[in-house]
Amino acid sequence: MDLLPKTYSEFRSKAYWDSFFKKRGEKEFEWYGDYQHLQASLQSCISKNDSRILVIGCGNSNLSSHLYDAGYQSIVNIDFSEIVIREMKKKNMGRVNMKWEVMNMLNMKFSDNSFDMVLDKGTLDALVSEETETVRGEAKQMFQEIERILVDGGKYVCISLAQEHVFQQIVNYFDTKRWKMRVHRLPSTQESPLTPFLILAEKKPEKEKGDNEFIPILNGAQSKKVKMQELQEALREIQWLDTVKQRVVNIKRGRTFSLELWDDRASRSDQTVQQTPRYLLTIVDNKSTTIGEPNKCAVFVVPIGREHEWLFSSEEGQYQLASSASFGRLIVVSMQRGHSYESLSSVQDELSPKILDLVPPSCRKDKIPFLSAGEDIGHRTPVCSRVSGLSGTMIVEDVATSDMVVRRLIFLENPRIVQSEVSLVPFSLPTGKTERTIDPDYLACEYHHLMVGGLSFLPSITEPSPVKVLVIGLGGGVFPMFLRRHFPFLSTEAVELDPAVASVAQDFFGAVVDDKMQIHIADGLEFVRTKANSISTSSSSSSSSDGRYSMVVVDVDSKDVSVGMSCPPASFLETSFLEQLKHLLVPGGIIMYNVSCRSVPLWQSTLRQLSVVFPD
User: Which residues, given as ranges, of the chain have pLDDT below 50?
Assistant: First the structure.
């Protein structure tokens, strides 16, 4: 039997509700839960002084009957459906003091100041089923009627899903009039996974109206006061999580889904914590059909400082991780910078209640296992934060893992990419105290190792005259400083667009400027163009004395993350630039590019572009 309306507008139609109650018969329909679900919150709102209660849009709910039996016996119920009022009168004949009347709540026949409480269970939601001027006008008319018939100090109790367009009508009317308000989060029911709310608005006498800046929002025994804007944001988050829970109620092979968990315990003064989520969760439903526990779930906590690794940050890597763990669903948890974490067990204690919302019901009776790469979750220490007009906010942080300590440069515009990394090794001071210093022999990036190997292709590497190297893209200066230390016959120049990055490289990553190492603050494209033109006009000699280089390294990141290639920007692959770059080389010189590309067609296109100018 189909009871749902064909259009939203039917929720406001008397004909629809007459038909609904005819089909439903004597069986009650409890929107948003029965009395047992609502009892605790309702009793916190209703006092014995609320002797006169009006229930608007009563339908065939048993709520009034339970309230009557609980001692609130001066109850009037109204509905615009004669059918349901006739049925409810018959059903409640033994409750002699309870009244049932056919009446439209937009035009009630009661005199002013007639009731201590108006109770609305789903009625406003049915009325504001559409976002039109007519509906908004009717909502305002209903609120005006409620205000008229309530005594000073009287309460409007609205049980609603508090969808944004519905709650906005409450805000527009009652907050503007400075009624005292509070919100209770109610338990969801099996019939509907969506969270209902109890919204209480208390009518203040005109002389008592003042600033209604903070509204209590209650979740069980917990309570806190928030501003109206924060309350609306909190409701949206709860409703969004309800939607998420619906989406992930079943394991669906090959699906991934990410969400953020924010720290609602953060103090208002802690801006860093307020601006970043505490956890990033990625739900990974296993692709494999041959796993050991296809209907079981587990959590994998990524150690701090390893969240950028391919296995944990890429979709393909996460699928591989889920397959290795042999669970139907693996929830991959990354801990975010700006927050503190004590241990793996404390993370498990904090997340366990929330994880239950993200697993199928069949998994909730079992303890969800928490996995990680060892017991040590790592530690992150902020060293420096600077803001650049070119690179945005950049941070330097020291990350302690189970076996080493590293220092990293991160651009927050792309926080999962490590721009530069050095190893910090302990050394002893004369005082006996131990500190850490940069290990000059450490190269974190695999492609830097390959670039060092590229030096073996230079025909003049053993000549006593200096071999000139150009590095476009300084970052933390790790690679050029490695060359300076280990290859003293090299003369290295680095070009960096952002002076703030060059400053960080020198202040925190050990970069220096001397006769073996120069740093040019310039646009790499313009630097190459100017240098190429200068060589063309100065001399026809091809020796390195005219400014040519034996090796050029292009290691520049792209700010455009939409193209599928993070290094280099497209402008560094244009034929005109490649021709200028080629002009900078001595005979037998080499060019090396750091190309980071996830798209196979884009990678193949990059190779074709390079081969046009460098066919060999």
Answer: 1, 267-269, 541-544
